[in-house]
Design goal:
Blueprint: E1 3-9, H1 30-44, E2 51-58, H2 66-80, E3 86-91, H3 98-106, E4 111-117, H4 121-127, H5 133-145, E5 151-157, H6 164-177, E6 181-186, H7 193-197, H8 209-225, E7 229-232, E8 235-237, H9 244-250, E9 254-258, E10 263-266, E11 269-272, H10 277-285, E12 292-296, H11 299-312, E13 317-318, H12 319-324, H13 328-343, E14 347-349, E15 353-356, H14 358-362, H15 364-378
Parallel strand pairs: 1-2, 1-9, 2-3, 3-4, 4-5, 5-6
Antiparallel strand pairs: 6-8, 7-8, 10-11, 11-12, 13-15, 14-15
Helix pairs in contact: 1-2, 1-10, 2-3, 6-8, 11-15, 13-15
């Protein structure tokens, strides 16, 4: 079983209203205290020597100075062994600096995820982003000049009032930069309440289902023609350059999370760290791990999550995996559900696997909800 390491760096210079991840503006001394506590957490945690991927997320890891980034990476490198093949870090365009890139490159980081969100100056202003279009281009050029050959661009769509032509321009601009990977996230109102709250009421209406579907279809068509293979609902890459860290998570392998708000799935258990910097640090000061909401995972729970996330990936769910599960009642219920989705044109039966059709990918969230209902009903059979 593969092991991924996720390190949450909670600091951001500003809070984006559309972001639901835990973050804080760094106060004096906080970054130093965070790094001290992070080192303690690694020392107290299970062995990480079998890790194959490391992902620094946030927040905005790149708000750290070059010196602090160096310490951050060395803390992790000291504990993870020699098997890590993918070192990823999220960066904001406004904090991409030459000295930081030099440190990242020298210490082995080999994948950068750049938080673009949009190339449209009107939308950037609408989102309250701190960078301009020219800063985006400059940041990307600096990353390439520093020698990085695996770059992801994050984009968001389905903003209130966003047109098809605006989204198409964003995609074409991203493709023209020739990154190895592109992530496209549909704005979810429930995760962006602050964003919607500051919009005038007459402009607050979220994109309709029909508009969202059209934007999805534009994405599939344009990126597919440009040579980017969709491998998960929101993710596209050139051949062989899928994000291995995320694949590890979606395939229900193991991962250890470090830092406030980081989650873990390890040793048959699932748990999280408090989404508060001080509450995360306090137990560490007493040489205790700050884990909360710990639960022992049953084979059934792993099976259910594997099916739900498996359907989000273009490779789908292998029939061999379905048939290997011991709970025959649940398996038969899932098979009946899948066969009905095949009849509806939502799912493809490809002999060895079930996977969503284009129609099914548009309905992926509702398919997941319906599948969870199948699991619940099977408990009483």
């Amino acid at each position: 079983m593969k092991l991924g390491i996720y390190v949450h760096v909670p600091f951001c210079s500003t809070t984006c209203d559309f972001c639901s991840f835990y973050q804080e503006k760094p106060q004096k001394g906080q970054i130093h205290d965070y790094l001290e506590a992070l080192e303690l957490e690694f020392e107290l945690s299970p062995s990480c020597v079998d890790a194959t991927t490391v992902f620094f997320g946030g927040g905005t890891p790149s708000v750290l100075s070059a010196k602090d980034l160096e310490r951050l990476i060395r803390i992790v490198k000291k504990r993870v062994g020699e098997n890590v093949s993918e070192w990823s870090i999220e960066m904001a365009p406004s904090s991409v600096k030459v000295d930081k890139l030099k440190v990242l490159k020298e210490l082995g980081v080999n994948r950068i995820s750049l938080g673009v969100q949009s190339f449209d100056p009107v939308l950037l202003d609408f989102m309250g982003r701190q960078h301009s279009v020219s800063q985006l281009t400059q940041a990307y050029e600096r990353i390439r000049d520093a020698g990085f050959t695996n770059v992801n661009l994050d984009l968001i769509f389905a903003f209130p009032g966003q047109t098809e032509s605006q989204w198409e321009r964003d995609l074409k601009t991203a493709v023209a930069l020739d990154p190895e990977h592109i992530s496209t996230y549909c704005l979810i109102p429930e995760d962006a309440l602050s964003f919607f709250a500051r919009i005038p009421k007459e402009k607050r209406k979220k994109a309709s289902t029909e508009v969202e579907a059209k934007l999805f279809e534009i994405t599939w068509d344009l990126l597919g023609k440009a040579g980017y293979q969709q491998y998960e609902i929101a993710n596209y890459s050139k051949a062989g350059l899928e994000c291995q860290h995320n694949l590890n998570t979606w395939k229900m392998q193991e991962w250890l999370g470090f830092g406030p708000a980081a989650a873990s799935q390890f040793g048959g258990e699932r748990y999280a760290n408090p989404a508060n910097l001080q509450e995360w640090m306090n137990p560490l000061d007493e040489a205790s791990l700050p884990h909360v909401n710990k639960e022992r995972l049953s084979p059934r729970e792993i099976f259910e999550d594997t099916l739900i996330f498996g359907l989000r990936m273009n490779e789908g769910v292998k029939k061999e995996y379905l048939q290997s599960f011991g709970g025959k009642v649940l398996v038969n219920s899932c098979l009946s559900f899948f066969k009905e989705l095949v009849k509806q044109g939502v799912l493809l039966d490809e002999g060895q696997a079930y996977r969503l059709t284009d129609k099914g990918r548009l309905l992926a969230d509702s398919v997941a909800v319906d599948l969870m209902c199948v699991f619940d009903e099977a408990e009483f059979l």
